[in-house]
Design a protein that fits this description.
With 145 residues, the protein is an alpha/beta fold. The chain is built from four helices and eight strands. It has a single domain, classed as Flavodoxin domain (Rossmann fold, 3-Layer(aba) Sandwich).
């Protein structure tokens, strides 16, 4: 069975809620999803052994959260080249963190990313929850059968 790692860095819980919905979408597509808070990732070994990776962060003062920056640094020491990936985040006004994560995963880590990052303000509205679930299904579709 295919496995995905969904890691989030949240300020007020909205990014975590999005991560949960993405994991549900992955699960609906037959992929076992593991959720982790970026602050709990201690080393590169925590990132090994997955078929897909979805990283996300809230945008705070036009930047990603510190644990998300640390996560991307750790990820540079793990061979994720060619692995399926996606990036997401919650934001109030701007949402720059999501784009930086996506670009880092695509260009620096060499991952096989979905077409674009997921940027939504919250997963509290059912429409946004379904958008996040659909994103999880998009990541799952990147995996070979």
């Amino acid at each position: 069975m295919k496995r995905a790692l969904v890691i989030y860095s949240t300020k007020g819980g909205r990014t975590e809620a999005i991560a949960q919905c993405i994991a549900e979408g992955l699960g609906a597509a037959g992929v076992v999803a593991q959720l982790r808070n970026a602050a709990e990732v201690e080393g590169g070994a925590d990132l090994e052994g997955f078929d897909a990776y979805v990283f996300g962060s809230a945008t705070y003062h036009h930047e990603m959260m510190k644990p998300a920056r640390q996560l991307l640094s750790l990820a540079e020491n793990v061979d994720l080249k060619g692995r399926a990936g996606g990036a997401f985040g919650a934001f109030g006004w701007s949402g720059e963190a999501t784009d930086v994560i996506f670009e880092t995963m695509s260009h620096t880590l060499g991952m096989d990313m979905v077409s674009e990052p997921l940027r939504i303000q919250s997963a509290t509205a059912e429409e946004d929850s379904e958008t996040a679930r659909a994103y999880g299904r998009l990541v799952a579709a990147k995996l070979p059968s």
